[in-house]
Design brief:
The protein is an alpha/beta fold and 274 residues long. The protein contains nine helices and 13 strands.
Length: 274
């Protein structure tokens, strides 16, 4: 575990920040892949440029349109394609921190891609515990991930969900206990709190409960944030995808609106306590 959030504070600003999502089109091997990986790569680069123009503080790339997802153990062609897209995103927005999420929960693949492309963080949907999802039961494996990160000497932060969206926990743990387990037993560098599904609003009360339970880790909102809701949510960071799009693509003006709203809250800094 990286102490005192040194890694997080090297990656993100010491103010509320915006992580802009890049939802990749279907990749080779996915049922909906259209046969042209180059087009997927160019669309990802275009979204990266729009996010940078609009003032996002970081980018997060994920294989969003590969549904139905594998639980773990992504195919080699998926990992290779995700790497190619991430390299294009990094080239399109070289000044922004880059993160990787390998859906549904292939944390080792995400870490491998991050190391290969020079990304500085990953998102892990299930780091600890077990949840029931549309892929079946997914179990976290923090032990394998942290050991691999240590072996690779990778300075890659782990942003881990607390009772991730599109899932129901098997254990009857409240979000506060789940947050403590994820941070202190699972080794997460930051925690992500979301609504029930993609684009669904996140409860400010849930954010506050996680913050109280784990006051020494940054808390991010992982779904449903808009320019009009960030002030009430009071998080350290916001991972936003749906609200940034117009006609299916990232719109720089929408990015600017929510980036300005997030910075205008000025309520917390990374790793602050309440």
């Amino acid at each position: 575990m990286i102490e005192d959030n040194q890694l997080m504070t090297r990656i993100f600003p010491d103010r509320p920040f915006l992580v802009g999502m890049i939802h990749l089109g279907p990749l080779p091997g996915a049922p909906r892949f259209g046969g042209d990986l180059g087009a997927v790569v160019e669309a990802a680069a275009a979204d990266a440029r729009a996010l940078a123009e609009g003032g996002a503080d970081a980018l997060l790339v994920e294989n969003f349109h590969d549904a139905p997802f594998l639980k773990q153990g992504l195919a080699p062609e998926t990992v290779a394609s995700l790497t190619r897209c991430a390299l294009a995103v990094r080239a399109a927005a070289p000044g922004l921190p880059l993160g990787i999420n390998a859906l549904r929960n292939d944390a080792l693949a995400a870490l491998g891609v991050a190391v290969a492309v020079g990304a500085t963080f990953i998102r892990v949907n299930v780091l600890t515990g077990a949840v029931v999802t549309d892929q079946g039961v997914i179990e976290g494996d923090a032990a394998a991930l942290l050991r691999r990160r240590a072996a690779l000497r990778a300075e890659v932060a782990i942003l881990a969900d607390v009772q991730v969206k599109h899932a129901a926990p098997l254990a009857a743990l409240d979000p506060a206990q789940w947050a403590r387990d994820t941070a202190y037993r699972g080794g997460a560098d930051a925690l992500v709190v979301s609504g029930s599904g993609t684009g669904e609003p996140t409860s400010p009360e849930r954010v506050a409960a996680v913050r109280r339970a784990v006051p020494d880790r940054p808390v991010l909102v992982g779904s449903g944030a808009t320019a009009g809701t960030v002030a009430a949510l009071g998080a350290d960071g916001y991972i936003v995808g749906t609200a940034l799009k117009a006609a299916g693509r990232v719109d720089a003006a929408r990015v600017r609106a929510i980036a300005d709203a997030i910075r205008g809250t000025g309520r917390y800094s990374v790793g602050s306590t309440v």
